[in-house]
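Let us work through a complete example step by step.
Step 1: write down the sequence.
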Amino acid sequence: MKMKQAIMTEPGNIVFQSVDIPEVGNHEIKIKIKKIGVCGSDIHVNHGKHPYTSYPVVQGHEISAEVKEVGKNVDRIKIGDKVTIQPQVVCGECFMCQNGMYHVCEELKVMGFQTTGMASEYFVVDEEKAIILPDSISWDEGAMIEPLAVAIHAVRRVSTIEDKNVLVIGGGPIGNLVAQTAKALGAKQVVVSELSETRIEIAEQCGLKTINSNSEELSDGIVRCFGHTKADVIFECVGSSYTVAQTIEVARKGSTVVIVGVVSDLTKVNMGFVQDHELTVLGSAMYQTADFNQAVELIKDKKINLNSLITNHLDFENYSEAYSIIDKNKDQVMKVIINVEISNE
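Step 2: predict the structure and record it as tokens.
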């Protein structure tokens, strides 16, 4: 049986081909892809600027799907289940894997980057990668659990977020979700700093306070929002060398900084501030299964607004158009969702 699969043959070029649907192994499941989310890392691949991805590549790592077949030794998942997939492939043997940090495995591969992604009508995957979703979570929301897991993991990097004043620099999808997560997990006050009017409006739709960095100095906005005690925790969610340095500069003495944005260039940081202000600087990468499970619970409890972040829907055949929309309307686009149409049951 054949299925349609989207392949990026080189930067900026996606073609569709008909390929065999893989057979299901004893511990595997076959899923019918419903929705695919497009993320910032996908855009880097489209521009040929992802340092760990070669071509051709099948993308797609933010998905929702329905289980269509299960292997004979699968007992946790059943046909008809609604699922999303944790897209990491880890070795299980390195120091990180053996010490509870498999999400930064020394041999880490991610579906859609270093191994085959899910931009196809069907996909076969190990049972252990599937996260079961309740019926109350929509297909669109299911495709956004992966970026929400990124946000949850970032917030969990801080020892406690409860009763903290939290600043998030960057109101894109990840920044917005970090802010919503911090609020949902008990932060005292959460403020998002952003340049884009559209993203500021969406943040406010999600119940978040904002600083418009086009019209107000960030340091002034921090004092306006938090007072002279400023922010206890700052999450950098842009990933530029400028905003990383800025985050350090505006941090209050004794505060915590979490670098969530993927920084592709070398950054000059005032290490004198880090030392003299006794800052705690943390990195946050990927997620673990617990982050996916908590994402499901937060959505079930209606503590996270995902639908306000979805700005565009496109059919599977128009996959490449998603990248054009994002490139041309960068500050107006948040999350683009691909609707995968199935023609061969």
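Step 3: interpret the result. The mean pLDDT is 96.
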